[in-house]
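Action item from last week, closing it out:
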Amino acid sequence: MSSDDVLVSCTDAALTFGRGAQAVVAVHGADLTIRAGDRLAVVGPSGSGKSSLLHLIAGLEQPTRGTVTRAASLGPYDIGLVFQGDSLIPALNVAENTALPLVLTDRAEDEARQAALAALALVDAADLAERLPEEISGGQAQRVAAARVLAQAPRLILADEPTGRLDHATGAHVLDALLTAADHTGAALVVTTHDPAVAARLTVRRSMRDGRLLAPEEVS
């Protein structure tokens, strides 16, 4: 692949919280390149630094050492984030939650709603459009979160433990939705997980231990 395919490049990127004796190193010198169309799983136990690495990639945190470089063509709305747990606004119904990022970028409300409904259909959640978040299950809420990202048509989807609080069947359905979203938009997909079964469904996996990102492993 050419350099034009590179969306994000981390070079010796580290993240430390606090100073002196109170300092905690969340990520040690990570080297990582994310290209268009990648399917990457970052695997490790809780506290291994996976979420911190994802925050560096997304630009939510700045490295305290090294660099994180994003393609000049990669705008702020080209990165879609799916967080573990409830991320829906209680006062908005499912369709409104899904359309919200588009409305915030000055997309016409009718156009945003149509994009939201199309995205919900792709993750098999169209029948939830008029329900409030309190009226749907946790697994359904995660599918809606995936639809919200899909509606944005991002070039990079970052999902932080999206199946971590779900049973196996529901988690598989949520991962199906993320893969559908990535395939539909042509986006790169990076998923953090502690579940080897989830990691095995992505093309490449990287393990994290104690804040250190290990060498890549191809999945056949």
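Closing note: The mean pLDDT is 89.
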